[in-house]
Write a structure and sequence with these properties.
Order of helices and strands: HHEEHHHEEEHEHHH
Number of domains: 1
Strand order of the largest sheet: 1-2
Number of helices: 9
Radius of gyration: 17 Å
């Protein structure tokens, strides 16, 4: 992917970083390490299922916005048809999205497609809890159906003051395809209220949602 066509903040631009709870990073490192070890057998089965379904790539790689406006490379198990971004553009998945494979539907419902992102969490590019890591160059539309970029939404830069998360308030409580401006309100609420105990609660809720296979539900997930 040619990143030169995507706007970056100038070198002098600095997103003020909000201080993290004291135990947040140790929790990220501990749980991501455990998940990478314990999920290894499951990851092998997932890789085999993806390859057998359509012979396409096992992993989906994408540039994401990180803390301070820095790009990082996120990896997930592929849940859509091969080369989806090239054919359809970088778009948020919608309900009954035809791009999603049969294996992908199961993975997305249980959140298993996110397992490779534990590597990003271990490396410190992401956290277990925080605003979702947004795709660079994603095709967006506002409430009126007009094309818009993330950078044009005022609260976008504020949410980059913390590490993006695998799960969070917005991920748990809101549908994926609501307008970005509404999502960002919940992201900023988390940033203002973040604490170790809030993170722990959201992580436990996320495990329960995964166990029940409710991640793709538009209504109450937990």
């Amino acid at each position: 992917m040619n990143l030169s066509r995507f706007p970056k903040p100038p070198q002098s631009f600095l997103v003020p970083k909000v201080e993290e709870p004291l135990l947040k990073r140790p929790l990220d490192v501990t749980l991501s390490t455990l998940m990478l070890i314990l999920s290894a057998p499951v990851s092998l089965l997932i890789a085999l299922a993806i390859k057998l379904e359509d012979r396409g790539p096992i992993f989906y790689r994408q540039e994401r916005w990180g803390r301070g406006g820095v790009y990082f490379k996120a990896y997930k198990f592929r849940t859509m048809v091969p080369h989806s971004d090239k054919v359809f553009g970088i778009k948020q998945a919608t309900e009954n999205d035809a791009r999603i494979t049969n294996v992908g539907k199961v993975l997305r419902a249980m959140g298993l497609d996110e397992l490779p992102q534990m590597i990003s969490i271990f490396r410190g590019e992401m956290s277990l809890v925080g605003p979702r890591a947004l795709a660079v160059g994603e095709i967006l539309h506002d409430e009126k159906g007009c094309r818009v970029n993330y950078e044009e939404i005022p609260d976008f830069w504020k949410r980059l003051s913390v590490r993006p998360g695998l799960t969070g308030v917005t991920t748990i409580y809101k549908a994926k395809d609501i307008p970005p401006r509404k999502k960002f309100r919940y992201d900023l609420l988390y940033i203002r209220k973040q604490s170790f105990w809030l993170d722990l609660r959201l992580i436990l809720m996320s495990f329960w949602i995964s166990f029940r296979g409710k991640w793709e539900h538009r209504e109450r997930k937990w």
